[in-house]
Structures are given as C-alpha cells and as structure tokens.
Description:
- It contains 17 helices and 12 strands.
- By secondary structure, it is α/β, with parallel strands linked by helices.
- Helix 8 crosses helix 16 (388-412) and helix 16 (388-412) packs across helix 17.
- It has a 7-stranded mixed β-sheet with strand order 9-8-7-6-10-11-12, sandwiched between helices. Strands 1-2-4-3-5 form a 5-stranded mixed β-sheet.
- The longest helix has 25 residues, at 388-412.
- The chain has 2 domains: 2-185, Rossmann fold, CATH 3.40.50; 204-360, 3-Layer(aba) Sandwich (Rossmann fold).
- Bound molecules: glutamic acid.
- The site of glutamic acid has 10 residues, from strand 3 and helix 15.
- Keywords: NAD, Nucleotide-binding, Oxidoreductase.
- Pfam families: ELFV_dehydrog (PF00208), ELFV_dehydrog_N (PF02812).
Amino acid sequence: xxxxxxxxxLHRNPGEKEFHQAVWExxxxxxxxxxxxxxxxxxxxxxRLCEPERQIIFRVPWSDDSGKTHVNRGFRVEFxxxxxxxxxxxxxHPSVNLxxxxxxxxxxxxxxxxxxxxxxxxxxGSDFDPKGRSDAEVMRFCQSFMTELYRxxxxxxxxxxxxxxxxxREIGYLFGQxxxxxxxxxxxxxxxxxxxxxxxxxxxxxxxYGLVVFTAEMLKTRGESLEGKRVVVSGSGNVAxxxxxxxxxxxxxxxxxxxxxxxxxxxxxxxxxxxxxVKLAExxxxxxxxxxxxxxxxxxxxxWEVPCEVALPSATQNELDRxxxxxxxxxxxxxxxxxxxxxxxxxxxxxxREAGVLFxxxxxxxxxxxxxxxxxxxxxxxxxxxxxxxxxxxxTEIMRHIHxxxxxxxxxxxxxxxxxxxANIAGFELVERGMVAQGLI
Length: 441
Ligand code: GLU
C-alpha cells in the first residue's frame, strides 16, 4: 500500500530526488502507524501531506556592480499550515531547485510540529550564489527577491528566516525592502533579525546549541555524557561553530570541522574565537584559519576520517554516506546528531543503526533554530525582548521535550532507541491531528 502511494508521488514529482528521499524516509517509518490505524490511508492523508498547499516560483532580476544583468529563480513552497502559519528558512545556493526546496519544506513541517510551537512548514530560496558577491550586490538581489515575495508573506501567513547562504545580513536587506514596500514595521514577518531591530537573543546560537543538547540527551539514555568526548563537525558556518561552542561548554573537545575546500584537525581543540573571526566576520576560508592557528589542514579530504566519539554533520544534505558511516563506526563513534537537514544518506543511516550508534535525525536534532525563531515571533508579538539566559533556557527545555517525545514515541511503537521512527511518527501524528480536526481543505 505504502509502495503504491510512494509510486504515485514519484510520478507526480519527476526528477525531484531529494524530495523523493525525504518522503520515502517518512513513509517507511509510518508503516506501524498505518497497521494500527488503517483508516488514515482511506482519508488520503499521505497524498495531502505530500502535496504542498502552494508553490510559488518567480523571476529575480538584478544587476551586478559592473552593471551586468543577471536572472535567478526564486522559490517559496508553502507546505502545510495545519498547526500555524508557514515557517521555514530561505536558502541561497547555486544547487537550489524546486526538488530541494520541497524536500526542505516537507521536513520542516514535521520538525516544526515536534517543537510544540504553533508553526506550519514552508521553505524557499534561490539558485543565487552569494559567494564572492559584494554587499551591494547581495543587497540588490535581496531587494529584487523581496519585491516579488512580499505579497505572499505576513506574520499570520508566512514567515521566512535564514538557511544556507542567508544570515543576518540578508535578513536585514529583505526586512528593509518588506518594510519599504508595505509601510509596516511588522517585526514578526521574518526571523533571524538583528537583536537591535527585533531579533532574538540566542537565535544565531540556537541550531548548534540545540543540536548538542539533543545529542547529550541521547547519550544520557546510555549512561554517557559529552565530558571528554572528541567531537567532529562538518561545515564551519553558523550551525557548526555554535555546535562546537556548546560541545565545549559541556566538556567535550571539538577537534575537526570542514568547508568545501577541505577540513582542519586540531587535537587540542578548535580555536572557536579565531574560527568565528575568519568564517563569520571575514567570510574567509578554513585554509586561512589553518594558516593563522597552525592547525593541520587537509584539502579535499573527508572530515569523517577523523576518529571521534560524536559526529555532527552540519553542512548540507547527503554529505555523510555509507562509506563515511562505516569509517565512523570503525573508529568507535557513539552518537551522530544531524545539524544540517538530511545530511546522512539512507544507506549511511542503515550502517549507523545496524552498528547500534545513537542517531538523531535533523528534523528533531536541529529543530532548536526554528524553535527559537518561534520564540522570536513571541517576543515580537508582545513587543518584548528577553535576556540571553531566559531564551537559552527556553531552547534547552524545548530540545529536551523533543528528545523525550521522539524517545517515548519510538518505544510506544516497539522501536526503542530509534529516533528516526520516533521523530517521523510523532511529527506525523501532530500534523495529522491538526489536519483532520480542520476538515478537508
Ligand atoms: N532554516 C532553519 C531550519 O531548517 C531555520 C528555519 C527558521 O528559523 O524558520 O530549521
């Protein structure tokens, strides 16, 4: 039955391989749910869940500093609003296409449900490549992008945020243009804003911090902690850096991270202050960090070769495959927590699961970012701003709640310790209840 539904989804969405992968992973987990509640299949819930409520594709023309005109494609997929307004980030990266945005929007729907906050799922972005572009070029691109997108947004409708290639700088330009077009100071229409102008404390830290809190909770179920553990992270952006920071605060040693040019290893621990300077402030390369810190730089290598107890893939989708998983297992990894969205391939997940490695899927483990976006919306709605400590305490509480929800749901379905099943089933049950309660729309 599930195969038949999946087959129809494949044919309706040709060529969208990341979307197919994300859908199949969820459907596979739901088999025990359908066995207990076959009526769900009659209501075509899966078909409804896999069809976005609305998909917007638009032209984004802009001119570079030399006056040359470029055309990019903009996307916003408003996936599901059963539990709240569409919420999810924008990704600016040359690899972006409809299939990638749909996979991200689909995942986001379940992730957002797991946070327990009133937010639906959506995602957007563009195939624009911000790498090597001046601030003025990025600004003109963002202004053009928002000139079309603004009509689809609103604090009660759809609230974008950042993702790969979209950080505080881009959110600033997007917010400025939204405000200019609408003549409304509507803080709650975008999250990830600067703290000075309606942003939340701890939002930039949230995804990485939350990931490590989730991973520590997984370790706790086996009587383990992060104390003294070697942590290897892929990526060296916002998520990766703050994951390493929280890991260090909890007594672990972050020893390696990567970017598209290679990876660095530093047995005594990565110098996070220098890394922030190079990667976040200067938008530089990891090789430049290695030159300044004296760390070993391995160009073009796989960061998963570095032996560790905890691995946190925090760069992009399908970056940890079967061979990488086998290497990690051989080197004695205890836990893998996904900071990125779907960074582990299905074969990679299988290898880790069969070896008994604790595995926290992205839609649960990296939900701290969007959860803190929902906290930003709360602050905006009440025209308030909370302290860092208060915001972080709320984030920690939410991550523990997500962990426990996934853990108990997996147990309830006879799959103890299977966080993939736990996250998919718990997320599905929440969204499904919202959809059924609101009738056939
Ligand atoms: N892009 C992030 C995610 O995947 C954050 C989304 C948001 O804050 O809305 O969860």
